[in-house]
Design goal:
It is a single chain. By secondary structure, the protein is of the alpha/beta class. Helix content is 39%, strand content 13%. Strand 2 (46-50), helix 3 (54-67) and strand 3 (71-74) form a beta-alpha-beta unit.
């Protein structure tokens, strides 16, 4: 298994600045890379971390043993931040990428490069597996997963192929599912691409099974509400659907139009924060060379206004 490499770690540290912002919330603990970096950066920093993956809990035990009272962990999805007992935080991070532990464990079913069951659940204790979703979901839900969440141009071929494969056992294993999808979309248009033909469909299925976009939409206002005045919030996303949600939320908090079609008069907007990134920060060539999985990462940062500067 490859070592877990936190994405855009130096950039996240620069924005979150644990030397100044001493109470940090890591909403996606994962492999613990970002949390360790925060704790090592400043001796007075405390980190509260959450993650709904049960395997993250065992990794958190190791961090807690090292940093003791400076670190605490809660078994929660970031869409459940309202259940977190701790109070306000000076800095909050959401790293929306899958960890290497998840990607490189065949039994989790996230990667078609490793043979395993088609599970894909971030929290395997809840919901149904991706394989069961493919066998039972109505056609319109498959369309939403493949066309909307996966942004697969040949979505209708993939959907029809999945429907026709039900009951054959093909949908239950990662390798056979990937082969099925590759046959549906055709290999030739992807010949020069670095991505497997099943990449987009696997992404869409995973997003649908975990309700990732809905959870993110719920989490952003909950996280911002937990942010202390003057605090900084950083989100690292990995595909355009996530980044669009983050971008629009951050712009709304900054009192700016969310998109080109947003015609709300300026006097009706509320300014609660300041954008620290007008455009997303991307990994440099060196980081991409060392960690190819970082190539699609995009970091955005927002600072909450001090109470006396709140507008609206």
């Amino acid at each position: 298994m490859a070592a877990h490499q936190p994405v855009l770690q130096a950039e996240a540290l620069a924005f979150l600045n644990p030397c100044t912002h001493t109470r940090l919330l890591d909403c996606t603990f994962g492999g613990g890379g970002h949390a360790r970096a925060f704790l090592n950066a400043a001796p007075n920093t405390t980190v509260t971390a959450i993650d709904c993956d049960p395997e993250a809990s065992s990794r958190a035990v190791v961090v807690e043993a090292q940093f003791r009272s400076r670190f605490s962990f809660h078994d929660l999805n970031f869409g459940q931040l309202d259940r977190l007992p701790e109070g306000d935080f000076d800095a909050i991070l959401l790293d929306l990428g899958l960890s290497s532990f998840q990607l490189d464990t065949p039994e989790r079913g996230f990667s078609f490069r490793l043979e395993g069951p088609v599970d894909m659940r971030l929290n395997p204790r809840e919901g149904i597996s991706a394989g069961e979703f493919l066998e039972k979901a109505p056609r319109e839900e498959l369309v939403r997963a493949i066309r909307d969440h996966g942004e697969e141009k040949r979505w209708w071929r993939v959907v029809e192929t999945i429907l026709n494969a039900r009951g054959t056992g093909t949908l239950g294993k990662t390798a056979s599912l990937a082969e099925l999808i590759a046959g549906a979309v055709g290999r030739r248009p992807y010949h020069a691409s670095r991505n497997h033909p099943a990449t987009k469909s696997f992404q869409g299925i995973r997003i649908a099974v975990n309700r990732e976009l809905e959870n993110l939409q719920n989490a952003l206002p909950l996280a911002f509400a937990r942010l202390a005045p003057g605090g900084v919030m950083v989100v690292i996303s990995f595909h355009s659907l996530e980044d669009r949600i983050v971008k629009r939320f951050f712009r709304r908090m900054a009192g700016k139009p969310e998109h080109s079609g947003d015609s709300l008069p300026q006097q009706l907007r509320q300014r609660k924060g300041t954008l620290l990134t007008n455009r997303p920060v991307r990994p440099g060539e060196e980081e991409v060379a060392l960690n190819p999985r970082s190539r699609s990462a995009r970091l955005r940062a927002l600072q909450k206004l001090e109470l006396e500067h709140l507008e609206g």
